[in-house]
């Protein structure tokens, strides 16, 4: 039997088909999704995009060129790399995520990595107030030293001839007109060689009016670039140079450069050769010329901390005091802060809010104000503390003159400034201790001290440990309290480099770099690098402690 295909059964009409037909283009949804033409502001922004990018690029290239033209090659390369990376990231559509990372990475490189590397590099040099310049600049400075030949100095006057000028030189003995110059423009920024003419050739007379001293000052820079040569003479001894607002004359240079780079002093023929170890031009007798220049000295600054006995003694004492100062501050501030937090956590204590506010005040008042107030309170002759001690016990301690008392005073002030921080932290941690533990302890008959040492302290000290390490690192570099209260004094009496018995490493470094010892930046940078590694070690310890807490 042949199979036949039955026709499909038509579907019943849907209720949705009822009513008038609506075109898709006539619906409100179609109007909502219609692409609108860009606004005028968007079109203007599109037109200005590439001109603004080009302008920024030209400004960046000009900055790089300026650095390179100024002899700062490495700065120019670093700036070019920074701007190149920025343009590559923000103009590339595929590096969208880097647009958010680039500012942070750039800030870290510019403000953290670069200062660290630059400071470390200075620590391997002899950079100081006596070795500020490069060897080339020191050589140019020494070659430029000269003195005038007094018996050949000539007075001069400057005469205006329209927009040009002529110099008139007088004989040093008779005062008669001797030499004149051709008309000069007195413009430009390069040295100008001029051959003088006899006064008889000063044409028919009219030299124009002589400029007053006030007008002469306006042309002093152009006059300083003139080098006047006598007719037929070309030697340096016969060249007249600008000596002031009224004089031209020959000069006698103090040094002459030799083919091997050494300098010969003209007055006595002494030869000074550059010494790459000391950064000076020196003769065979060890005499050196000032100023010196910057050279690499390797580990010399670090070796001084260990091998130089006169430097090692105060340095080790200061390092030990820095550790003791930081450790005792944290210990005493923690003990006082935890004790006050426990007392303020006692619910039966009346006026707890008032006590908490008063005890928080040392943290609310700016630190430098509190330090200066304490400096007045501890004054030996007029301070309130000595007035009370004198009235009660008849003593007036020399807080700023005695090393032990000065250190004690520093600890008192620093603990006063630091205990509110620990008190706040401990008060917050106490709220997390379950009350059931204290109830069980009370049933067992334990007292307050047992509760503190068996329950409170163990549960608080563990989460508090990373913060205590951070407090130790902060006090390790607490420059403000030392600088404002004692300024590092009293000083060690037998030290090559001025050092104070209350100095910590950071204040000691500041004194070396900027104050008493001739600004030895190289040594200060070496100590700063050591401080960085010590603080970095504390930070790593802090991270390990925090990892254990998590």
CATH class of the largest domain: Mainly Alpha
* Overall spatial form: elongated
Number of helices: 18
**Radius of gyration of CA atoms, rounded to a whole number:** 40 Å
Q: How many separate domains make up the residues?
A: 3
What can be said about the biggest beta sheet?
8 strands, mixed
Under CATH, the topology of the largest domain is which? MetI-like fold
- Low-confidence parts: 1-5, 14-19
Terminal residue distance:
83 Å
The CATH superfamily name of the largest domain is MetI-like
- CATH architecture name of the largest domain: Orthogonal Bundle
Provide the helix percentage.
40-55%
Structural class: alpha+beta
Oligomer: single chain
Strand fraction equals 5-15%
Q: Determine the mean pLDDT.
A: 85
Number of beta-strand segments:
14
**Widest sheet, order of strands:** 5-7-8-9-2-3-4-6
Notes on the protein architecture:
This protein is an alpha+beta fold. It has three domains: 50-122, Up-down Bundle (Methane Monooxygenase Hydroxylase, Chain G, domain 1); 146-253, D-maltodextrin-binding protein, MBP (Periplasmic binding protein-like II, Beta Barrel), CATH 2.40.430.10; 305-549, MetI-like fold. Helices cover 52% and strands 10% of the residues. The protein is built from 18 helices and 14 strands. The protein has helices at residues 28-32, 40-69, 73-90, 98-122, 135-144, 213-217, 220-224, 300-307, 309-344, 352-364, 367-377, 384-393, 403-430, 435-443, 448-476, 479-485, 505-514, 521-549, and strands at residues 146-148, 154-161, 164-170, 177-180, 192-195, 197-198, 226-229, 239-242, 247-249, 251-253, 255-257, 263-265, 271-275, 280-282. The strands form three sheets. An eight-stranded mixed beta sheet has the order 5-7-8-9-2-3-4-6. Strands 11-12-13-14 form a four-stranded antiparallel beta sheet, with helices on one face. It has a two-stranded antiparallel sheet with strand order 1-10. Helix 3 (73-90) runs antiparallel to helix 4 (98-122) and helix 9 runs antiparallel to helix 15 (448-476). Residues 1-5 and 14-19 have low confidence and may be disordered.
